[in-house]
Amino acid sequence: MGLALGGRKETFMGLAGMGDLVLTCTDDKSRNRRFGLALAAGAAPREALAKIGQVVEGYIGAQAVHRVAQRHKVPMPIVEQLDKVLHEGADPRAAVAALMRRPISSELG
């Protein structure tokens, strides 16, 4: 989506993109990581948010990114399924199954 909106690939591959992604996924102080771990342990999104007790950017961001992707007709199946789980009450296992049923294709279209 970033490329579709005029971003540069180099930005996403540098510290501002991949660096931030690696840190948020591996640092135990990351609110997004703690939120994900709580979800993986079986907590509902609202329960996980309450447990964190702070703003979890990924929770808010998933819905915003999904809306922008729809508006710009950029397919983002992982974001779509994540939004369904976080904001529509979809079962996480069903979301993973839906992703796994997709045909293999290039992420670059």
Produce a short descriptive summary.
The protein is an all-alpha fold and 109 residues long. The chain has 7 helices and no strands.
Describe it for me?
- The chain has helices at 9-13, 15-26, 31-40, 45-52, 57-71, 77-88, 92-100.
- Helix 3 packs across helix 4, helix 5 packs across helix 6 and helix 6 runs antiparallel to helix 7.
- The protein contains 7 helices and no strands.
- The model has no long low-confidence stretch (mean pLDDT 92).
- By secondary structure, the protein is mainly α.
- It has one domain: N-(1-d-carboxylethyl)-l-norvaline Dehydrogenase, domain 2 (Orthogonal Bundle).
- The protein is globular, with a radius of gyration of 15 Å.
- The level-1 CATH class: Mainly Alpha
Q: What percentage of the residues does DSSP assign to strands (E)? A: under 5%
How does the major sheet shape up?
none
The CATH topology is what? N-(1-d-carboxylethyl)-l-norvaline Dehydrogenase, domain 2
Overall pLDDT confidence: 92
Counted by DSSP, the helix tally is 7
Quantity of strands, as a count: 0
Named at the architecture level, the CATH assignment is Orthogonal Bundle
Which H/E pattern describes the elements? HHHHHHH
- CATH H-level superfamily title: N-(1-d-carboxylethyl)-l-norvaline Dehydrogenase, domain 2
Structural class: mainly alpha
What's the number of domains? 1
Q: Work out the radius of gyration.
A: 15 Å
Low-pLDDT residue spans: none
What is the rounded distance between the termini?
11 Å
Proportion of helical residues:
55-70%
Overall shape: it is globular
